[in-house]
Write a structure and sequence with these properties.
There is one protein chain. The protein is α/β, with parallel strands linked by helices. The strands form 2 sheets. It has a 4-stranded parallel sheet, with helices on both faces. The chain has a 3-stranded antiparallel sheet with strand order 5-6-7, with no helix packed on it. Strand 1, helix 1 and strand 2 form a beta-alpha-beta unit. The longest helix is centred in the C-terminal third of the chain and has 20 residues. The protein is globular. The two termini are 14 Å apart. The protein binds zinc ion.
Length: 168
């Protein structure tokens, strides 16, 4: 299994915000910038060695002509199909979910564990009672904890790993 520093890096087109957020949570360095425009995506893809993710057929063909790395998604395929396509093409035989490798879903910064809960942080009492470990993003200040959405991510990882296994 590859560790996260060996993971490929991505840049997603404007239609792929949801998948960009998932990739970040799974630890993949993924740029997603609103209103960035195709030229800038191409430029960043090339200069930062990022695989471009797109749902736009015309743009896909243009990226191929420019010799950049690209993965194209059919508009009919599901999110799981799209993720599976990424990991298969990137030759990842397994993915994992781990807070330590996770990136902020909103801004792509690596999240950090909070050593103690600061009083100024706006954490609901109920959450504080049922969670002991918190992570946060130094850049946008978003807080993360092991709630139900983490369970959903773990379920997704399991599902994808089963499918990756069946392909081998
Ligand atoms: Zn953030």
């Amino acid at each position: 299994m590859k560790n996260s520093s060996q993971y490929p890096k991505f840049i997603a087109d404007e239609m792929l915000g949801t998948i960009a957020r998932k990739l970040r949570i799974l630890g993949f360095n993924t740029l997603y910038i609103k209103h960035i425009g195709d030229e800038k995506i191409l430029e960043k893809g090339k200069s930062e060695d990022r695989i471009i993710l797109t749902k736009d057929k015309m743009f896909f063909q243009k990226i191929l002509r420019k010799n950049c790395q690209v993965i194209f998604f059919d508009s009919k395929s599901s999110e799981v199909d799209n993720l599976l396509k990424i990991f298969t093409l990137c030759k990842l035989d397994r993915i994992s979910y781990d807070f330590f490798n996770s990136r902020c879903a909103l801004c792509n910064t690596k999240i950090k564990r909070l050593s103690q809960i600061q009083s100024y942080l706006d954490i609901p009492e109920k959450v504080k009672k049922s969670n002991s470990i918190f992570y946060y993003c130094e850049n946008c200040k978003k807080l993360y904890w092991e709630g139900s959405h983490i369970k959903n991510i773990q379920k997704l990882v399991l599902e994808i790993n089963n499918m990756l296994n069946n392909k081998n």
